[in-house]
Structures are given as structure tokens and as C-alpha cells.
Amino acid sequence: MSAPTHTTESLTTWLSGRIALYLKREAAEIDPTVPLAEYGLDSVAALSLCGDVEEEFDLILEPTAAWDYPTVEALAGHLLDEFAATSAEASAASGAAR
Fold it and tell me: Looking at CB atoms within 10 Å, which of 2, 10, 29, 36 has the fewest?
């Protein structure tokens, strides 16, 4: 079994970078514990972020995720949970196919 390729740190860094791009800020200005709405993240940027997550990680993210998980830290944790669930499903499917 291979080690997970995603960590809270790597996802936090990636999310901060993407969000900073939408908000025209430096990634270092994005505090992972501050609600994204306080930075002015709007629905257009949230939808773009969902598209970026799908493109980058092949993971469908609901458009409401930025509000359901309102900080970078919470969103990174949610993505880790989704990766774990997807990995478990893939393992179960490959086991059933044998």
C-alpha cells in the first residue's frame, strides 16, 4: 500500500494559492483559520475553486463546499476525507473484482 500523496499541509498550501489568485492577494496573506467570506470570496470564485479541485485532483466538490467548510483549514480537512473515501471505494472495488 502506498503512502498518501495528499497531506493537510500540501492541500492547505494549494488551496491558499488558488484562493489568493482569485482574491488578487499573496498566498501568505491567506490565514487557513480565517473564514473565506472575510476575505471576500464570492460564489463565482467558490465555483471556480470547485472546478480547479476537480481538474487538479479528479474529485468532484459541491459548489457549497466553500460555505460548508468556511476556512482553508476546514476545506483541506474535507478534501482529505474525500480522498480517503475515494481510496477506500477504489480498494473495495478492486478487491471485489478479483
Answer: 2
Q: Are 41 and 23 in contact (CB under 8 A)?
A: yes
Does pTM surpass 0.70?
yes
**pLDDT for residue 97:** 62
Range 79-82, long-range pairs (CB < 8 A, 24+ positions): 79/6, 79/11, 79/15, 79/53, 80/6, 80/7, 80/8, 80/11
Check residue 90 and give its pLDDT: 72
Return the pLDDT at 98: 60
String of b and e for 75-95 (b: at least 16 CB within 10 Å)?
Answer: bbebbbebbeeeeeeeeeeee
